[in-house]
Write a structure and sequence with these properties.
The complex is a heterodimer of chains A (117) and B (108). Chain A contains no helices and eleven strands. Chain A is globular, with a radius of gyration of 14 Å. The N and C termini of chain B lie far apart (41 Å). Chain B has 108 residues and is mainly beta. Chain B is 0% helix and 56% strand. Classes of the chains: A mainly beta (117), B mainly beta (108). At the A-B interface, β5 and β10 of A face β5 and β9 of B.
């Protein structure tokens, strides 16, 4: 089954304790992205990646790192989490368009609810 | 700076009503615009619009894009309680940027 998986689904941690949220897709998508969703603010993009070893900042990259060493995986790293990073996080993937074409839909993972105390 | 504005932010209607949700955008390198429905979990895809003036339909939902005026609308006719959700629009360029969403509540 084509899907995007995230782990963990729920995480409660304390300030300053490094954590990684994994994201994996089995659709051979080039484009992957991380979002956080907070009440009243919608989905805000943290980082995105257009292919292996190619990553770029989205709207709210501060406090986060990503890596794209393999096409299928795009982990989100919080080196020193703080309470303002308490949020619902979504990973998404899609095909990347060739020149002149358009994006396909983004497929979303189930979300990771993170609480930083 | 790229921006996406959805309106209204919140809407309460009764079953059977028709609603129109708006999405205006200013983005560089625009390629297409996507609409998603989000209930209690991850967003689910509704439409992708690439050309102005061509309506896309799926059951009671339809959407259209105006690339000259930089907006899109999502219409839902004969609303049902199952349409209650947050509806998100996202213009596509390199960094896919979502609007804050419209929270639709359909009362019986």
């Amino acid at each position: 089954e084509a899907q995007v998986t995230q782990n963990p689904r729920y995480l409660i941690t304390v300030t300053g304790k490094k954590l990684t949220v994994t994201c994996s897709q089995n659709m051979n998508h080039e484009y992957m992205s991380w979002y956080r969703q907070d009440p009243g603010l919608g989905l805000r993009q943290i980082y995105y990646s257009m292919n292996v070893e190619v990553t770029d900042k989205g709207d709210v990259p501060e406090g986060y790192k990503v890596s794209r060493k393999e096409k299928r995986n795009f982990p989100l790293i919080l080196e020193s989490p703080s309470p303002n990073q308490t949020s619902l996080y979504f990973c998404a993937s899609s095909l990347f368009p060739t020149s002149g074409s358009t994006y396909n839909e983004q497929f979303f993972g189930p979300g990771t609810r993170l609480t930083v105390l | 700076e790229d921006k996406v504005v959805q309106s209204p932010l919140s809407l309460v209607v009764h079953e059977g009503d028709t609603v129109t949700l708006n999405c205006s955008y200013e983005v560089t390198n625009f390629r297409s615009l996507l609409w998603y429905k989000q209930e209690k979990k991850a967003p689910t895809f509704l439409f992708m619009l690439t050309s102005s003036g061509i309506e896309k339909k799926s059951g009671r939902l339809s959407s259209i894009l105006d690339k000259k005026e930089l907006f899109s609308i999502l219409n839902i006719t004969a609303t049902q309680t199952g349409d209650s959700a947050v509806y998100l629009c996202a213009p596509n360029n390199n960094d896919m940027r979502f609007g804050a969403g419209t929270r639709l509540t359909v009362k019986p």
